Amino acid sequence: MNIRKTTLLLLLLVAGVVTAQQKNITLEEIYDGTFRMQYLDRLHSMNNGKEYAVLNTDRNTGTKTLDVYSYKTGEKVNTLINSSEIDGLDYFIGYTLSADESKALLSTKLRSIYRRSSLGVYYVYDLDTKELVQVAEEAIQEPTFSPDASKVAYGRDNNIYIKDLSSGTTTQVTTDGAKNKVINGITDWVYEEEFAFVRAFDWNANGDKIAYIRFDESEVPEFSMDVFGNELYPSKDTFKYPKAGETNATVSLHIYDVASTETKAVDLSGFQNYYIPRLEWTPEANVLAVQTTNRKQNDINLLFVDGTSAEAKLILSDKDDAYVDVTDNLTFLEDNDFIWTSEKDGWNHIYLYDKNGKLKNQVTQGPWEVTSYYGYDPKSNRVFYQSSENGSINRGVYSIKVNGKGKEALAAEAGTNSANFSTDFTYFINSFSDAETPYVFTLNDAKDGDVVRKIKDNQALKDQFDDYVISEKEFFTLPVNGEELNAYMIKPKDFDPNKKYPVFMTQYSGPGSQSVANSWSAGNGYWFQMLAQEGYIIVCVDPRGTGLKGRDFKKMTQKELGKYEVEDQIAAAQALGERDYVDAERIGIWGWSYGGFMASNCIFQGADTFKMAIAVAPVTSWRFYDSIYTERYMTTPQENASGYDNNSPLSHVDKLEGKFLLVHGSADDNVHVQNSMRLIEALVQANKQFDWAIYPDKNHGIYGGNTRLHLYTKMTNFIKENL
């Protein structure tokens, strides 16, 4: 042991700051699984609302069982599926139950495509007869039962197919699908990434019609990246990727009649129809609900389409000067009245409309945000949701009558509460954490929130941290540029207010995001604790443009991504530098993705404020990023060239004075390594010295094997050497 460290430890023991058993977290412990968080397995609430199913694995035999448990007692009721009892199938990875819970779709040989999409070989297993039917010989995408479980629709080779489980026949619904040209019923890359869905087809309530979106991406520019691999020659991965201002896929809406095999195109020309980010059939079998929006994404139309005539009718138009978020919060009542969320009063709230689009009631209101919408219970006539009404860094679970009265706080303890409700809204499983408490899972009564039983906690992990030197995460607000910005600080455990400390700032700063939250933080949270005990003060500040503080606060960065957020981070660093215990000459900043974009801008534009910065997988010009995300906040480069260029790190490389580390994965299909390569070249031509690292064949997450350990070791060493 180092003599200086031994002396320091003895002094701390005398001072009563640490105990003899306590030690600092190490990177090896963070990434070798030393700190194991207990989570709940993914569960499926059964139709009766009193039971749930969980897929279990016997680690000794590899046997998979789909077991059913009682919500109230947690005890196993029965086993629906046992892989050892299925003739013709050795294993399966996942499952989906049919609406009537009589059959299950079992997935095997899954292969990831992009963030949310995958290909796999699927089987239908009849829970009563134990009969097993393979859906298709080939790998397929998004297989989905018809409502009566008699058929399965799926995507293959960019076309839609229907398997009739009784006759065994397969019908090809579309025939024009072709790679990098036309996709039917499955979203393209940019829809999957930015509108967050893959299955672009849906069965109606009677199972006699399928609505689907067709993507003609033949004119969309292609992006290619080298995959180095282990062979003598690298290969290329080429895919359609519309960058800001470039051509997007032309989308169209179609309705297929299963009996007649006829397809009708829906005429959307009279509506905002550049994007079709959502489609779903309403409870009325002949009424299709479709959401469409313009390219700027500031006018979302809710349309009802007649399933027979294919005629569309405008029901609701939600507009904003900046943009309107696409969500999954649309819920239909039995008479096709519907629930919708909107920021139209300045905060995200729940609204009730009749089936013609007339507002019946604003269900929630106040200077706080509805952060998750859980659903509507027709028996109690109540809406269930999560919100920030117990503080913008907290989350609580609530219910309220659809008329806006009788609100109940079901789980609103300071911290982060998140609910998973049973099908009939009898119970919910609440997950709770705060800055000091790892996740605790309880079963709660949905009427009043009373805890029925504790399911699982992470007391063992919390106890484990008694062996380590851990600092408190202190929440506060920082007055910056006329706003009170949410922030937190982690000081060294042996903090001495008479000393001066270097500050390492962490942030993401993207539109509508939140990094300052009263919740348990693993991963980077452990890293920050390690750095704090190395003598650094860790600070996080959520600047203007981030979320949970109202529409105006979030959307004021419109057309100027990287301007106000950078101003706020620089001003925050300067304000921190005025504190007696902060060494203003030793302030650093880092971030990943949008945070990397910010860290780059901050070290360049705040050269007199930041001594060092680390940027991982950064956007370096919004001209390089995808159309849907970028144009939502920036419009197109053709319309807003100055907004793109004035706030790009590429425009400020000549100002670099501090130490800068740039990191990227070469196979990043999201934020392309092109971003870093262009920044590297700009810095070289500006004759600026800096450090950089490229991780071969790693995507936006930069992980696999020892990759994360290597990356965080590199970043830690860079901090120690330069801050």
CATH architecture descriptor name of the domain at 472-721:
3-Layer(aba) Sandwich
Write down how many β-strands occur, each being a DSSP E stretch of 2 or more residues.
43
CATH superfamily of the domain at 472-721, please?
A: Alpha/Beta hydrolase fold, catalytic domain
> How many DSSP H or I helices?
12
User: What is the CATH C level class of the domain at 472-721, in words?
Assistant: Alpha Beta
Taking all Cα atoms into account, the compactness measure Rg is 27 Å
Outline, from the CA principal axes? globular
- Share of helical residues: 10-25%
Terminus-to-terminus distance: 24 Å
What name is given to the CATH topology of the domain at 472-721? Rossmann fold
Domain Peptidase S9 prolyl oligopeptidase catalytic: 528-723
Pfam families: DPPIV_N, Peptidase_S9
Signal peptide: 1-20
GO molecular function: dipeptidyl-peptidase activity; serine-type endopeptidase activity
Overview of the molecule:
Strand 24 and strand 25 (338-342) form a beta hairpin. With 723 residues, the chain is an alpha+beta fold. Helix 7 (564-577) packs across helix 8 (594-605). The two termini are 24 Å apart. Strands 36-37-39-38-40-41-42-43 form an 8-stranded mixed beta sheet, sandwiched between helices. The chain has 12 helices and 43 strands. It is 16% helix and 36% strand. Among the domains are: 41-172, Methylamine Dehydrogenase, Chain H (7 Propeller); 472-721, Alpha/Beta hydrolase fold, catalytic domain (Rossmann fold, 3-Layer(aba) Sandwich).
